[in-house]
Design brief:
mainly alpha; 108 residues; 5 helices
Length: 108
């Protein structure tokens, strides 16, 4: 059924990313998200991580944030992971702003 296909796509995407095949990973995770099963949240989290870090794609924190929010819609464990990912991303964004401010203040 859909759950088995979603689970396989998430697992294969992870293996592809670990092997440096980011295009394949992104494609598999996007497919898993479209399945609409319980693995869509895990796929959205994985894609969010990819966009947050810029691995295999252009870094895009706004897209990462949107994917993390999408991942949390399913509830349960994915909602907790989504909340943590969003919080960490917000902290990184705020920290980058502080660092930029300090650099600007000192003319670095």
């Amino acid at each position: 059924g859909h759950d088995a296909r979603g689970e396989a796509a998430v697992a294969l995407g992870k293996a592809a990313a670990e092997a440096g095949r980011f295009d394949a990973a992104r494609s598999l995770w996007e497919r898993a998200m479209m399945q609409g099963d319980k693995f869509g949240g895990k796929a959205a989290l994985a894609l969010g991580n990819m966009y947050e870090s810029g691995q295999g794609v252009e870094q895009d924190r706004e897209k990462a944030r949107a994917l993390y929010k999408l991942a949390g819609r399913g509830g349960g464990e994915d909602q907790i992971s989504s909340t943590v990912a969003q919080t960490v991303l917000e902290a990184k964004t705020m920290w980058d702003g502080v660092v930029d401010g300090v650099k600007g203040f000192f003319g670095w």
